[in-house]
Every structure is written in structure tokens, then in C-alpha cells.
UniProtKB/TrEMBL annotation:
This is L,D-transpeptidase ErfK/SrfK. GO terms for cellular component: extracellular region. Belongs to the YkuD family. The active site is at H181, C197. The keyword Transferase applies. InterPro entries: LD-transpeptidase (IPR050979), LD_TPept_cat_dom (IPR005490), TAT_signal (IPR006311), Transpep_catalytic_dom (IPR038063). The keyword S-adenosyl-L-methionine does not apply. Keywords: Cell shape, Cell wall biogenesis/degradation, Glycosyltransferase, Hydrolase, Peptidoglycan synthesis, Transferase. Pathway: Cell wall biogenesis; peptidoglycan biosynthesis. PROSITE patterns: LD_TPASE, PROKAR_LIPOPROTEIN, TAT. Coiled coil: none annotated. Residues 83-221 form the L,D-TPase catalytic domain.
Length: 229
């Protein structure tokens, strides 16, 4: 039987609002989606094309992304202070802690192998718009044919894998070489795909970027749900 695509997506989004599509939550940081959710028309506007940037940002095809990974405000229980970013790689979410037990939740893509992922606490020591990207030496060693040609770096732009914004994580004053950044592959949100960085939909990283200053604390949970360094 053929199912009308719009009716299917609408049902999926309604299910997400009722918690049927909610992701895993740790014992220390648990989120519950609020019962009322924006309608799909609002999501279409939220993830529409942006033409006010140095480079155009296309609209997101929402059919490519599970509804639960779209940006929304949720109830969030945590001991972290408002303004902190909490990343739960297992659930594929990043939370910006708000006041009164709330958080802005974003779907993310994480490292394709557990060993690639950063764990513990860091701070955002630098922010950049349309950042330059240079693969790490380890990336070049692992995949020289893929990354070797970019050893001198790639300027910001539509082909840059960091997207329109990047938040640089430092620990004890040292660059961890992990970032929260955008992506030109929104369909990968919710998957294990990156070389360790936390990737967000371009419209979402722009939203997060404007909400957080340099010095913001970032906590990346382990697979067990804690933030052990």
C-alpha cells in the first residue's frame, strides 16, 4: 500500500512529540520532549534557505532527517549550569542548558568509531564563521588519498566540511582538535560518521553559535552517560 509522504512525516513528528521516537537518555542528564511541538510549517521556516551569508546555505530536505533530530526546546534534568553545552554521543544530541530545567536540543552526528570521540569537559576557546579547515596529521595518515590534498588547509565555503560555523574545544589551554561545526551532509545527522567532531545541521550550528560566547563550558558524555575525562 502506498502511504502519502506528508501524512507519514506528520505522523512521525506527532509520534516524536509523544515520546515514541525519543532517544536514549543518561541517568545524569535526561530529556523529555515537551508535549506540544512546532508544526511542520515552522520547521520548514526554521530550516529554510539562508541567503544573508557570504555563501548561500540551501534549505534542508526534512524528509532526509528523523524528526527527533530537529531542533526543539525540551525539559532537561542536569546538574550543569545554564549556558553549558552537554553532548550525548550515544543519543546523538547536543543540549544547550537553559534556565528552569529546560534546554535547546540539537541532533548531531558523531565519530564513526568510538575511539575517535572526545570525552569529558572542555571550553569553547574560539569561534569562527566560515572557518578554514585543515585535516589533522592522524587523518592524513589514516586516509592519505582522501585528506593529503588538503594538508595546507581549505578556505571556508560551500565545499568546506566545517560548514558556516565552528566552535573550537580546548582543555587546559590546549586545542583538543575537536569542534562543534556544521555540515554539507545533513542526512548524516543522527549517525556515527565524522572523524570525531560533533556536526550539526548548518541552520542549527548558526543558531547555537549566536547563543554561546567564548568561554562556554562543553561536557561530552561517555557511552555510559558520564563526563569522565
Amino acid at each position: 500500500m502506498t502511504i502519502d509522504r506528508r501524512r507519514f512525516l506528520g505522523g512521525a513528528m506527532a509520534a516524536a512529540g509523544s515520546g515514541l521516537l525519543a532517544g536514549c537518555a543518561s541517568t545524569q542528564n535526561a530529556a523529555l520532549v515537551q508535549p506540544l511541538r512546532p508544526v511542520s510549517r515552522e520547521y520548514a521556516a526554521m530550516y529554510g534557505a539562508i541567503d544573508t551569508e557570504p555563501f548561500p546555505i540551501p534549505a534542508v530536505d526534512l524528509a532526509e532527517i528523523e524528526p527527533r533530530f530537529l531542533r526543539r526546546e525540551v525539559t532537561f534534568r542536569t546538574t550543569e549550569q545554564p549556558g553549558t553545552i552537554v553532548v550525548d554521543p550515544a543519543a546523538r544530541y547536543a543540549y544547550l542548558v537553559l534556565e528552569r530545567g529546560r534546554a535547546m536540543r540539537y541532533g548531531v552526528g558523531v565519530g564513526k568509531e568510538e575511539g575517535f570521540n572526545f570525552r569529558g569537559s572542555a571550553v569553547i576557546a574560539r569561534k569562527a564563521e566560515w572557518p578554514r579547515w585543515t585535516p589533522t596529521l592522524n587523518m592524513i595518515r589514516r586516509e592519505p588519498e582522501r585528506y593529503g590534498k588538503y594538508a595546507q588547509g581549505l578556505p571556508g565555503g560551500p565545499e568546506n566540511p566545517l560548514g558556516p560555523r565552528a566552535l573550537y574545544l580546548y582543555r587546559d589551554g590546549q586545542d583538543t582538535y575537536y569542534r562543534l561545526h556544521g555540515t554539507d551532509e545533513p542526512a548524516t545527522i543522527g549517525t556515527m560518521v565524522s572523524s570525531g567532531c560533533i556536526r550539526l545541521i548548518n541552520q542549527d550550528i548558526i543558531d547555537l553559535y549566536r547563543r554561546v560566547p567564548v568561554g562556554t563550558k562543553v561536557v561530552v558524555l561517555s557511552a555510559g552517560g558520564d563526563a569522565t575525562s
